[in-house]
Amino acid sequence: MKTQRQAKILELVRDRTIETQEELAAALRAEGFEVTQATVSRDIKELSLIKIPGEHNTSYYASPDEPMMRRGNEDRLRRLVRLSLSDINSSENLIIIKTPPGEAQGMASAIDHAHWPEIIGTVAGDDTILIIIKPKEATPQVVQRFLELARG
């Protein structure tokens, strides 16, 4: 049952805009699954679902493995950076990006899936992303790429 439920969750977040756990639970119930908010919360964690910024200060669930959540990797990253990049700073081979609360993990996932060769890893908190660059000489160019994406 868990496997079927989680497959349905992936289908729902792929095909609909699901903004809250409550919406997801209601959609699952409409599909015949008996779920609690706690079950949905565990499934979201196990499936590694992320929140993607939407329009009008909303966000929705998506799977990081979904082929670009119906968008190209670069398009997704451009949109996330344009909507969510609040501040960017660098030192040596490290870049720090600030986002609105709750949006760092979604942007970090998009950065990871963009596969920029200079980025060897990201670490995301709630509103901060640490990006590690190699070689360190590439750091200013990577910062510039983010600023260009932010401008649209």
UniProtKB/TrEMBL annotation:
Domain Arginine repressor C-terminal: 85-147
Pathway: Amino-acid biosynthesis; L-arginine biosynthesis [regulation]
Lineage: Bacteria, Bacillati, Bacillota, Clostridia, Eubacteriales
KW RNA-binding (keyword) present: no
Protein's UniProt keywords contain Electron transport: no
Family per similarity comment: Belongs to the ArgR family.
Pfam families for this protein: Arg_repressor, Arg_repressor_C
Keyword vocabulary terms for this entry: Amino-acid biosynthesis, Arginine biosynthesis, Cytoplasm, DNA-binding, Repressor, Transcription, Transcription regulation
Gene Ontology CC terms: cytoplasm
Name recorded for this polypeptide: Arginine repressor
One function term, GO molecular function aspect: arginine binding
Function (record text): Regulates arginine biosynthesis genes.
